[in-house]
Specification:
Elements (H helix, E strand, L loop, with lengths): L2 H15 L4 E4 L8 E4 L4 E12 L2 E3 L6 H10 L4 E7 L8 E5 L1 H8 L7 E2 L1 H9 L7
Parallel strand pairs: 3-5
Antiparallel strand pairs: 1-2, 2-3, 3-4, 5-6, 6-7
Length: 133
């Protein structure tokens, strides 16, 4: 599924679940694709289509993207990777990795246990670590 379609589905789910929240798509090669904010939560979401290499799936990060997400997490920010399969004949599976799981996904080829749907992803991010003032 293309990132544009992913964005639209996540945006619609977010707006249904959090009517007073803000979710926006950012057009930049250096920072993640989506920034979201509610009264108590804030974070960044990177959208990716998984690519198949030989016998496993990989996340096609551009230079600096993985480092940005890792650094943001280390600084106590919420960073999330949402991926779908590039081949739509496989199905409409969504995969969600948050925090340290992004690093594990980068070095590991297993996808078991990460399959989800757009609404579940929005429920997850709204339930992530709250902002403290």
């Amino acid at each position: 599924m293309k990132e544009t379609m992913m964005w639209k589905k996540l945006r619609d789910c977010f707006n249904d679940l959090v009517p007073y929240g803000v979710i926006e798509r950012i057009d930049s090669a250096r920072i993640p694709d989506i920034h979201y904010r509610t009264a108590t939560h804030e974070g960044w979401i990177e959208l990716k289509q998984l690519k198949q290499r030989r016998n496993h799936w990989v996340v096609p990060f551009r230079p600096g993207q993985f480092a940005w997400l890792s650094k943001y997490r280390i600084l106590n920010g919420v960073s999330i990777l949402v991926a779908t399969m590039r081949d739509e004949t496989i199905g409409d599976d969504w995969y969600c990795f948050k925090g340290r799981e992004i690093q594990e996904r980068y070095y590991n080829t297993e996808l078991y246990g990460y399959k989800t749907k757009p609404l579940a992803i929005i429920q997850l991010i709204v339930g992530c670590r709250p902002i403290t003032v």
